[in-house]
Amino acid sequence: MQLASLVAVLAAALSVSAHFTLTTPPTRGFDELVEDVGPCGGFDTPSATRAVFSSSSNITVRFADSKGSASVKLAVGEAPAAFPITLGSVELRKRGVYNLPFDLSAVDVSNNGASATIQISISSSHGTLFQCSDVVLAL
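Below the sequence we write its predicted structure tokens.
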């Protein structure tokens, strides 16, 4: 009985260890138990503060799996639910810290100064996980 309990605890620990953390710009929130809930990893309420985001900004994640695919999307607005603008994607080949590539050329320059939300999704053998960051565009 104790062995079965130990196996269950180890399996649970392994299943939640395959996550990522958005560190820059600041994440809206992080809870590995709901990180698979789209569109923002269980955090649907926008942040009270927004980071300024421009083409010289970084999008940095700490990836805790052996491989996966990251996608960077954007939506303009105060509290978007869909993310129609793809800014970039990249294959992640090992655990570590990554600066994700992105291209703001698809964002209309008339959105300069607008509130927006960046969505990071990472798909791996453990499924798709999400995090968001609320920003102000500096185009």
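The chain has one domain: 19-137.
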